[in-house]
């Protein structure tokens, strides 16, 4: 009865734009990453709305896996994971000290970056699991090597704080040379052994991100944090000797929209803002409700393609806030579905192509995908 009333008064509207998520592919990618590092625990990083894929939906797809942690960056992300999964949560990001009391300390583990946070968590009086974050060269945040002894001395007097794991983050794992990785690994190990000298025994050691999962062959590291590789997108360049290993990953995401308008454009007429496109022949222009507010960069105007059935059509004119225009043929009709982004990595309308034409990287392109677009799990 309740379901019927909800359907009656809150009907499910068919959206014009949809982000499609392939659960089977996501789990295959996770299994492959685990195969790369069989000795290690793997926990997915779902920060920034799961890299644009949709935090709630990716959590639901991972809910029945046995990963030791779902890693997020903030309190709002923690709330979403806690609501939709029983998996433990690792908070990667820092927060204001007064916010720590709002977390369920039985559900979440905190990455700790400084002495002030250690002291504050101690004062809360709750048993709290922490991962100590070492600054091994990124120099954005974290405990520096010369500060570590003081932090360990402080922790020795705070038995409610459990040093579960230690971690750091590579700053150049996607580089062709491994010199910086070697330097950071050596620093990490020195700091780790200082922790052992203080009579703490963290059971896991994790520094590896997506790129490092393909490059590191060291059993010392028994946990990894795949970020963008979970969704297929590789941080490695084609000339990298490890690049071929990424061929076993596949895109999770695709995006579709609908044709909302068809205009017959006569020779030497204009299309879109500032008259940036002017055809020399009679053309049909289709308008799609997908613009830069949804995702497409205005800088990519005139360079992109959409796919209708088996045919690609070129985008023309300026990409608008909520609209974009394409030269099509008579096979296209109002209401037809078109593919904005393909799950075929080699297609003309792949996400890496969009990032390249937008003058940025895949990371930035992904996280700017409008959160309001409906996500659907396949």
Radius of gyration (CA) equals: 24 Å
What is the general shape?
elongated
Q: What level of helicity do the residues show?
A: 25-40%
Tally of separate helices: 11
Q: Unreliable segments (pLDDT under 50, ≥5 consecutive)?
A: none
- What is the count of β-strands? 17
Beta fraction: 15-25%
Order of helices and strands: HEHEHHEHEEHEHEHEHEEEEEEEEHHE
Terminal CA distance reads 27 Å
Q: How does the helix and strand content classify structurally?
A: alpha/beta
Tell me what the structure shows:
The chain is an alpha/beta fold. 27% of the residues lie in helices and 20% in strands. It contains 11 helices and 17 strands. It has helices spanning 2-9, 23-36, 47-51, 55-62, 75-84, 115-124, 148-156, 179-197, 210-215, 351-357, 362-367, and strands spanning 18-21, 41-42, 70-72, 89-91, 108-112, 128-133, 161-167, 204-206, 223-224, 253-258, 261-265, 283-288, 305-308, 311-316, 324-328, 337-341, 374-377. The chain has a 6-stranded parallel β-sheet, covered by helices on one side. It has a 5-stranded antiparallel β-sheet with strand order 11-12-15-14-13, with no helix packed on it. Strand 14 and strand 15 form a beta hairpin. The longest helix is centred in the middle third of the chain and has 19 residues, at 179-197. It is elongated.
């Amino acid at each position: 009865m309740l379901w019927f009333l909800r359907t009656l008064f809150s009907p499910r509207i068919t959206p014009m734009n949809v982000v499609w998520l392939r659960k089977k592919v996501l789990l295959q990618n996770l299994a492959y990453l685990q195969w790369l590092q069989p000795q290690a625990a793997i926990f997915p990083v779902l920060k920034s709305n799961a890299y644009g894929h949709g935090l709630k939906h990716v959590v639901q797809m991972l809910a029945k896996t046995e990963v030791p942690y779902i890693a997020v960056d903030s309190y709002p992300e923690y709330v979403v994971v806690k609501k939709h999964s029983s998996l433990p949560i690792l908070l990667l990001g820092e927060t204001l000290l007064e916010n720590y009391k709002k977390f369920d300390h039985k559900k979440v583990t905190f990455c700790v970056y400084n002495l002030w946070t250690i002291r504050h968590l101690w004062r809360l009086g709750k048993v709290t699991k922490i991962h100590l974050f070492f600054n091994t060269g990124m120099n954005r945040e974290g405990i520096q090597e010369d500060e570590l002894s003081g932090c360990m001395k402080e922790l020795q007097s705070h038995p409610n704080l459990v040093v579960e794991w230690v971690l750091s983050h590579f700053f150049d794992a996607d580089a062709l040379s491994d010199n910086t990785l070697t330097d950071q690994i050596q620093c990490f190990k020195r700091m780790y052994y200082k922790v052992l000298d203080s009579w703490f025994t963290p059971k896991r050691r994790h520094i590896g991100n997506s790129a490092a999962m393909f490059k590191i062959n060291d059993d010392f590291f028994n946990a990894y944090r795949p970020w963008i590789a979970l969704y297929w997108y590789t941080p490695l360049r084609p000339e990298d000797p490890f690049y071929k290993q990424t061929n076993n990953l596949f895109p999770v995401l695709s995006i579709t929209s609908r044709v909302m308008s068809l205009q017959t454009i006569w020779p030497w007429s204009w299309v879109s803002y500032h008259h940036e496109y002017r055809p020399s022949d009679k053309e049909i222009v289709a308008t799609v409700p997908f613009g830069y507010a949804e995702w497409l960069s205005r800088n990519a105007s005139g360079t992109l393609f959409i796919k209708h059935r088996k045919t690609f059509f070129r985008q023309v004119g300026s990409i608008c806030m909520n609209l974009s225009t394409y030269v099509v043929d008579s096979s296209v009709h109002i209401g037809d579905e078109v593919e904005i982004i393909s799950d075929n990595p080699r297609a003309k309308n792949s996400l890496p192509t969009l990032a390249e034409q937008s003058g940025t990287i895949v990371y930035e392109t992904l996280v700017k995908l409008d959160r309001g677009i409906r996500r659907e799990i396949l």
